[in-house]
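I'll show a sample.
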Amino acid sequence: MPVIALAGDFEAGVEAAFAAAVGQYVVAAPQGRLGVQTGAMSLPDPRLHDLQAVFRAAQTVPVSFTLWHAPGHALAAGELPNAEWIGRLRTADALLLVVSGEGGLKAAADRLDALHTELAVLDLAVLEPAQQRLQERLTSGPRVERREAREQLAVVSRAREALEANRPMLEGLAPQAVVSLRGFGLLSAKPCAVACNAPDDDAAAIEAQRSAGGLDDWCVVAAATEGELDDLPEEDAAAFREDLGLPGLASDRVGQALRTALNQITFYTGNTRSVNAWMLPRGATALDAAGTIHSDLAAGFIRADAVAADELVEGGSLAALRERGQLRRVGREYVVPDGEVIQVHFSR
């Protein structure tokens, strides 16, 4: 379950955006020095219910995210943020940056640029001393360590130059170089989705602009209103959503933006006990999918049966598709597309 940290400036309405996304599914009340609040957010998925009928499953398990925020903490220009809060942000799998929608989408984009600048400043405070330490290691220690330091220094220096030039930090870096930066917990290197917290009267117009602009890693929420809808009967809540002119639930919009930012696809497994949705990095293989389900499946992987979820729903069952030769038998290197049902065969 990916861990998503919410952050924004003091005017963004981060706490309201959190409430709109997780609704009643707050799993941890404020505690500790930071007062972190944690909630679970499931990604609505109509395919799950169709697949539940196919497998005659007792339950469905959707993709879920763990969201957290620390009330009272914000990214503010000219102010030194709480070090413990920043340290915890660095451990998140992705960030959900919340920006105010006051003044429209362009104003929100300008506020986002300011947040990215704050993240870059925080990362430079990590990279600059790291660069100095690596330079010192070049002149001492075993030859192998000096070579490793030289390689790491090249990556760190390039990352620092990119941040100082206001360029994407990971652009053009080889996968191995990207991996070597993970230990620094750089905020600018994390997948990042954006929640534009719009006034009720402007929400529909801003959503239309977002959609027309192809900003798939953005979502629009009317957080102050949507955060209170869980307390209403569903009929009344639906009426409020219709008045706002925003599609679906806030959790749906936030989840889709996060999935885009994480560059993940969804695949499914099923039996009579449950139908499960799983997330997988785009471009990952059937072996990766097996490991996502359970490490034993990856260790004993033999092959997998694969079929598009929509094709399975139309066909009625895996057995029927197998009889008609419509069930694909794939190996460990098979790249799993979005919306595929995977059945792993493995040795015990």
Q: What stands out?
A: The CA atoms of residues 31 and 37 lie 7 Å apart. The radius of gyration is 23 Å. The mean pLDDT is 89. The longest strand covers residues 274-281.
